[in-house]
Amino acid sequence: MNCKTEKKKILSFDLDMTLVDDKDNKIPRSAIDAINQVRNEYYIVIATGRNLELAANQYVLEELKPDAWVHNNGAQVHIEGKQVYYHEFNKDLLKRLLDFSISRGLCVCALINNVEYCTIPEDLKAIQYILSGDARPEYDDVMKLLELPVQTLGFVGKDEKAQILRDAFPELKIPSVIPNIWCDIMEKNISKVVGMEKVLSHYQLTMNDVIAFGDSMNDYEILKAAGYAVAMGNAADGLKEIADYITDDVDKDGIANALRMLC
Q1: Residue 238's beta-bridge partner residues?
Q2: Beta bridge partners of 107
Q3: Number of neighbours of residue 261 by Cβ within 10 angstroms
Q4: Cα separation of 212 and 258, whole Å?
Q5: Where are the beta strands (DSSP E) in the chain?
């Protein structure tokens, strides 16, 4: 059942290097304070590539207390604590992707229940500190993913290697998140916009009512579709090109400064 609209706008936030500073994996106090000041006027929504069901990400929900969260790049949606959408990666497509990546020496991976499954574990371990700080997850056979609930995957490597996957799998989207280090991998019909539409339907709002914040190219679609787009100062150039407003970096009170101007 749809919820009667009480608030007129949605504030949508990506996490990494938008709301969360990857240097310490924390949300700046200034951002939390600024969001709390407008909470009575705006629905607060997270739109992230992270899986917010993982124990390591629970602090985000506890600190921010969002009304809804679109995670796994839109493959999963929770509204007011209840799961309303869930999509699993097609198993035939997943097998083709894994077989191709192994044959071409490409690093494709997924984190499931705090265990990493990866075609080239050494490549992922080399950048693990960027993704999980001091945490060191266990590793297991990547082909076990065919028996597990996979929603999205990641790619580790240079941009030209990511392009090999894009060319071979036009049915996938592989946006760059950290240039020459990390890309997200998802099916073409999955996106943060798709997930956000579930939230909008519930609150009887439209994309024109969304103010979206982001920093990387997996935020491109939702910023492009939103009524108002805010790119972080540390955002990718491609995101800044479509933004209505460019705020400061995540570690320079970018969220707080933007909300002060907008709200």
Answers
A1: none
A2: 156
A3: 10
A4: 11
A5: 9-13, 42-47, 68-71, 76-79, 82-86, 107-112, 115-118, 138-140, 153-156, 172-173, 176-178, 182-187, 210-214, 228-231, 245-246
Cα angle for residues 123, 117, 139 (degrees, 5° grid): 80
Could you identify the residue written with the tokens 């209505």? 244
Which residue is associated with the tokens 């805010």? Answer: 230
- What's the pLDDT at 128? 81
The full length of the chain comes to 263
Please identify which residue in the block is written with the tokens 């929770």. 78
Distance (Å, rounded) from C-alpha 11 to C-alpha 9?
Answer: 7
* 8 A C-beta contact, residue 34 and residue 233: no
Is the distance from CB of 212 to CB of 229 less than 8 angstroms?
yes
pLDDT in tens, 168-211: 999 999 999 999 999 999 999 999 999 999 999 999 999 999 99
